[in-house]
Amino acid sequence: MPSRFRQSRPHRIHRIAPASRAEENRSETSPMIPTEKLSAVREQFPVTRRQLYLDSAHQTPLAMSVRDALASFLTEGFETAGPKPVWLRRVEETRVSVARFFNAAPSEIAFTKNTSEGLNIAANAVPLEAGDNVVLIEGDHPNNAYAWLNLKRNGVEVRFAPLPDDEIATATTFEPYIDARTKVVSLSHVTFHAGQVHDLMGIGKLCKERGIYLVVDAMQSVGVIPLDVKALNISVLAAGTHKGLLVPQGLGVLYIADGLDELQPAYLAMSSMANPPADYVARPDDMAVRKDALRFEFGNVNLPDVHALSAAIDLIQSVGVAAIQKHVLALGDLLLEGLDALGVSVVGPRERGWRNHIYVLQLPVETWADYFARNDVRVSPERGGIRVSLAMFNTVDDIERLIGVIRAGLKTNAFAAIAHID
Ligand SMILES: Cc1ncc(COP(=O)(O)O)c(C=O)c1O
Fold first, then answer.
1. Reduced to 3 DSSP states, what percent helix, strand and coil does the chain have, rounded to the nearest 5?
2. Where are the domains of the chain?
3. How far is residue 372's CA from residue 354's CA, in Å, rounded to a whole number?
4. How far apart are CA 26 and CA 18, in angstroms?
5. Do domains 3-61+320-415 and 66-317 have the same CATH topology?
6. Ligand 1 in contact with 120 (CB < 6 A)?
7. Over its length of 422 residues, how does the chain's per-residue pLDDT go in tens digits?
8. CATH code of the region 3-61+320-415
9. In this structure, which residue's CA is closest to atom 7 in ligand 1?
10. 220 touches ligand 1 (CB under 6 Å)
């Protein structure tokens, strides 16, 4: 690959002149995952041998260890028709791992189906009266919006704070929309459509000061950004597990802060009850629900996925979420640098700290989505262009290959007018 970008290719990150904004944002203290470890990680993801996979924000490819966990679950099912006590014990072990992931207690974690279920559980658990309001970000993921918009039929007002795609939400974004009747602020940590990383620390502080519940959709950040629910003052966090948590669709995790006893479940099952009847006969005279987050866990959960999640968390922890974040940020620096050289812009913010692993390239979806597919590059069409999302198994070579594919695309007649090629 010719060009400035090729010449500047760092194995260790270094500066080239003239300094681009990406370089200004670059930190020498953000090394990538060391080569040997990265090779081992890459071995775990066979998809990396088949295509250029840059779509983890859509869904994770499966790792070998996750497949093995699913396979052993199936073997147990075949051979023993299910050692349920063993399976249930593993659920509790996985709950402990998930809790550790968020700096929460196991009693604060429930397993759900996905992010939407967690957000709907939150929306129906918070005590809200007609005239109360909830503040969201305009254009945030619809699964967050609909959970709250559904409360309009109870007279709850839903307010949307506007936000440009290249900025992040801070306390200041929400302040003008908050009043004495504001009970909830709910937002994605990382946005799927522009990759913004919102300032949860500042927003959490504001919510604490004003006595507002902070509900966070962590679908796009979990596993890729360290999350400390206590430090961030999060009341409820909901996430699915099929992106940064590396397992197939159908399992979600829900954090409900201890002590929020006024949050009550809209559904009940035996598993939610403080005194589940040993004889399996429901007791209308004892409707006390559990005090922990399990009051929001209804019946059997997705056992194969829970087992897979345990293996996935082990894999993630073998690298460390902080190291994964540094890795994807360093690759993001390179990506921005390569895009700058080609004259291709991104939709979202460029500042480090405001972005992480999601970069939406301003390339028209109609032509470029097919072009990338034809070149074995897996990316997603998005509102503002083509979404590239990075994961722990991506490498400098992946970024170079992507830049090379874009460069070649820009040189063809069909795309020549879209961006300037130097
Ligand atoms: C921010 C965000 N929230 C939620 C979801 C998905 O919701 P669910 O887990 O309910 O399918 C996605 C994408 O899949 C997302 O990007």
1. 45, 15, 45
2. 3-61+320-415, 66-317
3. 27
4. 14
5. no
6. no
7. 333 343 333 323 222 223 344 434 444 456 899 999 999 999 999 999 999 999 999 999 999 999 999 999 999 999 999 999 999 999 999 999 999 999 999 999 999 999 999 999 999 999 999 999 999 999 999 999 999 999 999 999 999 999 999 999 999 999 999 999 999 999 999 999 999 999 999 999 999 999 999 999 999 999 999 999 999 999 999 999 999 999 999 999 999 999 999 999 999 999 999 999 999 999 999 999 999 999 999 999 999 999 999 999 999 999 999 999 999 999 999 999 999 999 999 999 999 999 999 999 999 999 999 999 999 999 999 999 999 999 999 999 999 999 999 999 999 855 544 544 43
8. 3.90.1150.10
9. 115
10. yes
Which of 37, 52, 390, 33 lies closest to 243 in space, CA to CA? 390
Closest C-alpha to ligand 1, atom 6: 115
CATH architecture type of domain 66-317: 3-Layer(aba) Sandwich (3.40)
Does the beta carbon of 188 sit less than 6 angstroms from any atom of ligand 1? yes
Q: Ligand 1 test: best mutation among 186, 188, 192, 227, most atoms within 8 Å of CB?
A: 192
**Could you tell me the two tokens for 44?**
């775990």
Amino acid identity at 67: R
Contact 224, 317 (CB under 8 A): no
